[in-house]
Amino acid sequence: FLIRDTRRIIQEAAKKHCFVCSKTGATITCWKTGCDRSFHLPCAPQGECVTQFFGLYRSFCWEHRPQQAVQAGPRQNNTCSICLDTVEDKTSYKTMVCPACQDAHFHRHCIQRLALCAGICFHCPCCQNQELFVMEMLTMGIRTSKRPPSWESDPAVGPLEQRHSRCDASTCLCPGGRRHREDKGPWKLLLCSSCATEGTHQCCSSLESSTSCWECEGC
């Protein structure tokens, strides 16, 4: 009976049309009761659909997808905290906000890439919050990974204690040189919070003493 039911479900799914591309074989249906919209997983971004990769693995169409409770407030510089390109001045499918600090704005595709690269170290690129931030991202359809950060497994990066032990600023002002670092003060070495592949002394990048989060020009 189980095999027969499985075959029937597959046959029925093969007949369903994707509301995004109009082709058949749309196996994902909106979780909302009464909604019969179906879509292919690859078509989800174009149709602004959300699939939650945890718990019941629920999927939603553009109309019934979860919305962030926090609203992106107006800022002088509406840029993505990851790629630094312009973002919308309000939350939407493409623009998301950290629920903890409510100051980190980012593109959906940027935070998705960061989630897969950061793995178990995935957190807000600005305030470093992890628990609230990750739960919000999962709810909004961001897929995460339980693997170690990708940069830890990269042979070119090397062991954790050997990574990024130098200042990569165009002009290093530290009297002790690029590899000198201190726990606090102007010669504290900060690593890029997104890629962790470049570092800078606070003083060399004209950062305030209270700065604890920094991103390199490439990110």
UniProtKB/TrEMBL annotation:
Residues 1-65 form the PHD-type domain. Pfam families: PHD_G2E3, zf-HC5HC2H. One of its GO terms (cellular component) is nucleus. Residues 80-128 form the RING-type domain. GO terms for molecular function: zinc ion binding. It comes from the Eukaryota. Keywords: Metal-binding, Zinc, Zinc-finger. This is PHF7 protein.
